[in-house]
Amino acid sequence: MGNPRLWCSFCWYKQQVVRNQIIQVIKHSGVKIILTDAINVPILEGIKDEINIERYIVLDEEKNIPDTSLKPIESYESLLAKAQEEYDFPDADEDSYATMYYSTGTTGDPEGVRFTHRMIWLQSLKCLSPESGDINADDVTLLFAPFFAVNAWGIPYASTMAGVKQVFAGPGFDPERAINLIKNEKVTCSYGVPTMDKAIIEVAKMAGRVDDLKDLRYMHCGGGVLDPVLVKDIRALGIEVAHMYGITECCPNIVTCFLRAEIKDVAYASDEEYVKFKVHPVKAYLVS
Q1: How far is CA 283 from CA 252, 253, 268, 280, in A?
Q2: What is the Cα–Cα distance from 202 to 222, expressed in whole angstroms?
Q3: What is the dihedral of CA 103, 100, 157, 238, to 10 degrees?
Q4: What's the rounded Cα separation, in Å, for the pair 217 and 48?
């Protein structure tokens, strides 16, 4: 979050891509410092001789850094403990690059997209709008979407702008752990793909833990088709649903679909009727 304010560009990377594509992304982007979870250290050890990295930072405490040949390597928590309380950040041009993201290369080699400070700022404002993300100062946001997914859908930036408490689920997804986070951290807004939301709702019902979701007011879904039956199941628990659509080049959100206030309490006779009533064609035009 802080590095764009230093006027340097941040590149997210996806460790699941194949070895040669990780090397390609690092070389093409010009990355000089790598921040990584400890679990990814062996991957980086396997490619260290083919990349030119000045510094490795493990996002953990010093004691949790595994034995490694990566040099120099530091703990993020140790760096944080030594950091100055005050820092005079330089002013960056709003059209300068803040972050970049590379596709997973499913149909070829990864391709990169750069995002400017202005793009992230506008995306964050959109997330705070009642007609879009609806994040407000009283919320607690929980992000299931990975950070490499287009600036983590912009949610960390928008949450910081709103001054809200942020909860991150960490690597891997487990519906029981997700329910624990929602309960213990009093989460009000979650962000994930439909399969994650479906798993949370199903496990909560089977385990008799529906009440543990009582603080959740919105489930924001993206990255896939949202089943109308799932929407009904979520709303039956008193949780509203927002369906987000976007593409990488748009940083990423284009459209967020909500049920309007005047139709939220309409009873649907069947799933088919719900589909006809809820789903409307949307055309988005990109005009330069």
Answers
A1: 16, 14, 26, 10
A2: 19
A3: -10
A4: 45
pLDDT score, position 178: 96
Residue 130 in 3-state DSSP?
coil
Q: Is the Cβ–Cβ distance between 220 and 190 less than 8 Å?
A: yes
Alpha carbon distance 44, 276 (integer Å): 50
Residue 279 CB contacts under 8 Å (≥ 6 apart), including other chains: 228
Cβ atoms 64, 76 nearer than 8 A: no
Distance CA 30, CA 28 (A): 6
Write the CB contacts of 15 (distance below 8 Å, at least 6 apart in sequence): 22, 36, 40, 43
Count of CB atoms situated within 10 Å of the CB of 120? 20
Compute and round to an integer the Cα radius of gyration of the chain: 21
Residue given tokens 């391709």 in the structure block: 111
Supply the DSSP symbol for 62. G
Query: pLDDT tens for residues 106-123?
Result: 667 788 888 888 888 888
Tell me 113's DSSP state: E
- Give the pLDDT score at 281: 47
Lowest mean pLDDT among 29-38, 189-198, 220-229, 261-270: 261-270
Which neighbouring-strand residues pair with 240?
218
Q: Write the DSSP string, 6-38.
A: GT--EEE--TTS-HHHHHHHHHHHT--EEEE-G
Looking at the chain, the number of H-run helices and the number of E-run strands are: 9, 12
* The pLDDT of residue 276: 43
